[in-house]
Automatic annotation (TrEMBL), chain A:
CDD domains: STAS_anti-anti-sigma_factors. It comes from the Bacteria. It comes from Methylomonas subterranea. Coiled coil: none annotated. This is Anti-sigma factor antagonist. SUPFAM superfamilies: SpoIIaa-like. NCBIfam families: ant_ant_sig.
From TrEMBL, chain B:
One of its GO terms (molecular function) is ATP binding. It comes from Methylomonas subterranea. GO terms for cellular component: ribosome. SUPFAM superfamilies: ATPase domain of HSP90 chaperone/DNA topoisomerase II/histidine kinase (SSF55874). It holds the Pfam family HATPase_c_2. This is ATP-binding protein. Keywords: ATP-binding, Kinase, Nucleotide-binding, Ribonucleoprotein, Ribosomal protein, Serine/threonine-protein kinase, Transferase. It comes from the Bacteria. Residues 41-138 form the Histidine kinase/HSP90-like ATPase domain. Gene3D superfamilies: Histidine kinase-like ATPase, C-terminal domain (3.30.565.10). CDD domains: HATPase_RsbW-like (cd16936).
């Protein structure tokens, strides 16, 4: 998988550069999320702009990241989700679980 | 509907790297639906997902030692239906006993079959002597 990790203000921004997250690469995504979280980052934004397909294992990997960070009282946010991908979150009602933003600017402008 | 009958039989190595290929065939077939009036983008995604989930299940769980190297999938497009069959040689399972996901306490697994059932019109799993078949039908 191809990732880009950068720091914007107090947020770690992980951009996933693959078009597809499925059972072939979701384990790698989980491992990388765990690595980031265990390194002490506790405000993570995952940008999914380039992801046009996600399967159940991909959703599972993101849910894993969310749970890991929630256990550390951190924030796990998703941004730039493509419409078809978003419909997977809606169908599984994961829109109630994740903090979902249109883009990074929306996260930054919603800071307390 | 006025699409021609199309039959695609695929046998791929039992490896997750081929999920993209299998899913892409599903997406591509949507372009052949001449008279389909529904949301083509949504249907393309659904077929990609259903083929990906069903094939991944076989790769992960459902083949015995003798058949562990390949997975067979057939896609049959007829006038008003798309029929997908995914074959396995595992112990099989009872489709009716697979629970729906707990949406209030979501877990990492257990969503694949839910997607297939939600998006398609009929899902059956038949155990036969030589193999098992997951048959998925989408009315067009």
């Amino acid at each position: 998988m191809n990732f880009n990790l950068e720091k914007i203000n107090n947020f770690s921004v992980l951009t996933i550069q693959n078009e597809r997250i499925d059972a072939h690469n979701s384990a790698e995504l989980k491992e990388y999320l765990l690595e980031i979280i265990e390194s002490g980052e506790n405000q993570l934004i995952v940008q999914l702009k380039q992801v046009r397909f996600i399967d159940s294992s991909g959703l599972g990997a993101l849910l894993f990241g969310h749970k890991q960070l929630a256990a550390k009282s951190g924030r796990f946010m998703l941004a730039n989700i493509q419409p078809q991908v978003l419909s997977m979150f809606e169908l599984t009602r994961l829109t109630r679980v994740f903090e979902i933003y249109a883009d990074i600017n929306e996260v930054l402008s919603n800071q307390p | 509907m006025c699409s021609s009958v199309i039959q695609v039989d695929v046998i791929v190595p039992s490896h997750t790297k081929y999920l993209d290929l299998i899913g892409s065939i599903g997406e591509r077939i949507v372009k052949e639906l001449d008279g389909y009036t529904g949301d083509r983008e949504a249907l393309a995604y659904q077929l990609n997902l259903v083929l990906t989930e069903a094939t991944a299940n076989v790769i992960k769980h459902a083949n015995d030692d003798q058949h562990k190297d390949t997975v067979r999938i057939s896609i049959h497009l007829q006038r008003d239906q798309l029929i997908i069959k995914v074959y396995d040689h595992g112990q099989g399972f009872d489709l009716d006993k697979v629970p729906a996901p707990d949406f209030d306490h979501p877990t990492e697994g257990g969503m694949g079959l839910f997607f297939i059932r939600s998006m398609m019109d009929s899902v059956t799993y038949t155990r036969q002597t030589e193999y098992n078949v997951l048959e998925i039908i989408k009315n067009l």
